[in-house]
Amino acid sequence: MAMALCNSLFHVEFGELGVAVGTFDGIRLTKLPCPRSNTSIKCATKSVKRSYARAIPCGAQFLISKYCYNGLLFSDDIWWSGISDSCFGRRLSPSVGPDASLQSGGFLNNTQFSAIQNAFFHTERLSWITYIYKSHEHSPTRTSSNRVCTHIHFKFISSENKLILIPNAGFYFIPGALSLEEQCQWIKESLMSFPQPPNRTNHNAIYGPIEDLFVSAKEDKSDACTPQWKFVEELGESHGKDVSKSVSASVLLRKLRWSTLGLQFDWSKRSYNISLPHKKIPDALCQLAKRMAGPAMPCGVEFQPEAAIVNYFGLGDMLGGHLDDMEKDWSKPIVSMSLGCKAIFLLGGKSREDTPIAMFLRSGDLILMAGEARECFHGVPRIFTDAENAEICHLESHFAGEDDQHYLNYIRTSRININIRQVF
Ligand SMILES: O=C(O)CCC(=O)C(=O)O
Ligand SMILES: [Fe+2]
């Protein structure tokens, strides 16, 4: 994983959350006061719809230069065409075929348009739209003031009726890809079994392999005075002697930052070390990854999950702008699943100077990065752990049993990302 600081300043509006200004690495991410209330967003959306319905003659083209769907900021321009008044206010099912896509200057037929409109306008995930221009030109011209986006496509997986948003070539964002049961299952696995040796974690370097960290952390709670591990910390010459500091399992669980599954990644050499002892990725996770990788795979080719990195984020943790470039074949996707608290994900360009686009990743969302997207810097500058913004109510109701309390306590203030890779 090539870590690099992306210094281009970005400015992102997050609907009710306000405006964030910062750098790609997130260090200077700041939340500014909210410019819009919930009600004004709703009103704005309504009035946008009304003005469309009133003012748009059939067949005209429109340019939406900025809007936000599911927290995903689209700041590039998009042309929609083939709009007719009668489309508005009608609830049509998204019934376009798997390959329906909208490209720059492309023309949508009414069914395609309605499907997209339906997805955008009849969902709570539409947060805001700004700057809507209309044009009667049929061929948008590419000038700087009238820019046409060349890389935003919308796709539907017709079989599952799921919307996939593809803001960059090779980048797929599939909101709500994992069911609630799947989310809970993989949260449990991520805590109980993924950090188990021979899988390595960030704790290996200091403590060596640690067995049953999650179980020990659970037991810690009832016997907080009995730490499970100790390490010796040199506190400096002036103290005249070494001072031992004990670390409890629950502290180590909180400090768990990553674990690696399958082929083990050697962070010091920044490469996969096939000689390190390892277990194959669990079969259920392999099957899931193969299924999830589908939209980014060439027809008839199957994704081969060989390694995975599990990232654990607590309050204040972030992942700086980086590239994942240690796998051999970049045409194969990285399959990346989000669990737990909501996060901001930034997708930049090939240069660290390119301004990233931002999106929220919620529990159950999936990202695929293949091809060109593998060359794009990306990072996670922030997670949200407060009750209002973490958006994990559905997990709270599912983890309701007594045995589940420890998972719930953990995930209430954490995010887990499982990203699965084909190495060769
Ligand atoms: O946490 C995420 O969503 C992204 C993780 C990632 O980019 C990585 O582990 O390489
Ligand atoms: Fe990454």
Automatic annotation (TrEMBL):
* Record-annotated Fe2OG dioxygenase domain positions: 304-424
Supply the alphabetized keyword list: Dioxygenase, Iron, Metal-binding, Oxidoreductase
Pfam families reported for this sequence: 2OG-FeII_Oxy_2
Tell me the InterPro entries matching this sequence. Alkb, AlkB-like, AlkB-like_sf, Oxoglu/Fe-dep_dioxygenase_dom
Where on the tree of life does the source sit, at the highest rank?
Eukaryota
PANTHER family associated with the record: ALKYLATED DNA REPAIR PROTEIN ALKB-RELATED (PTHR16557), ALPHA-KETOGLUTARATE-DEPENDENT DIOXYGENASE ALKB (PTHR16557:SF11)
Q: Which family does it belong to?
A: Belongs to the alkB family.
Spell out the protein name for this chain.
Fe2OG dioxygenase domain-containing protein
Task: State the organism of origin.
Answer: Rehmannia glutinosa
